[in-house]
Structure formats: structure tokens, C-alpha cells
Amino acid sequence: MSNAASILLLAFLAITFIQSGYDKLFYWKDNLDFLKEHFAKTRLKNVVALALGHILVLELISGILCVVGCIELFVSNGRTFGLYGAVFSSITLLMLLFGQRLAKDYDGARTIVIYFIPAIIAVLLFS
């Protein structure tokens, strides 16, 4: 139970990013159509598909690293993959935040901050 908070934070991040990556992967066209409209008046309007692919890869890497971090922490008390998962999660969230701010979607940006707080707490716990 000494690692309960760390495991719960990594599980939270893993669920968040694996589910989001799954959604982007299996509902690519729906996501792309929504995001093209969302970013139509921004500098990203011509690179939405590339940005979506980039975010998809980062989300999957973040989620997988968090899962491996949970396993590593549970099995050997190791913290390396947990730290990598938390850092990748934070970077991914910063990229999402940048996009929301660029699109002037301040409610969406505020929602991302809610996810960013546990990610930063995880970085602190694993550092």
C-alpha cells in the first residue's frame, strides 16, 4: 500500500490516454471532421490531420508508459517507467492545451488543466 497513490495516478493517466487514443484511432474521420471545424480559424487549419496523428501517437505512448509504470511499481518498486509516463502525459496535455488556447476554446483549455494537475503530481511523486 506504500505505492497506492502512485499506482492510482498512473492508472488514471493510463485510462485517460488509452481511451482517448482508442477513440482517435477507431473514430478517426469523426475526430478529424470535428477538429477541422474547431481549428478552421487558426494557424493549424492546414495541418489538422498531422496534428491529430501526432497527438494520437503521444497519447498511446503516454498510456502505455503509465501501464508499464504501474506494473513496474507493483512488481519491483521501480519508478522509471512511471516517471516517463507522467512526463509524456504532461507534455501531451501541454500540447492539447496549446491547441485549445489557439482555438480560443477556453472551457476546453480549463478542462485540460484538470487533467494536468494529477499528471504534474505524478511527475513530482516519481522524481
From TrEMBL:
| Membrane-topology annotation of the record | Multi-pass membrane protein
Task: State what protein this is by name.
Answer: DoxX family membrane protein
Q: What is its main location?
A: membrane
Q: Does the keyword Lipid metabolism apply?
A: no
**Keywords, A to Z?**
Membrane, Transmembrane, Transmembrane helix
What GO cellular component entries does it have?
membrane
Highest lineage ranks of the organism? Bacteria, Pseudomonadati, Bacteroidota, Flavobacteriia, Flavobacteriales
Transmembrane segments annotated in the record for this chain: 44-74, 81-102, 108-126
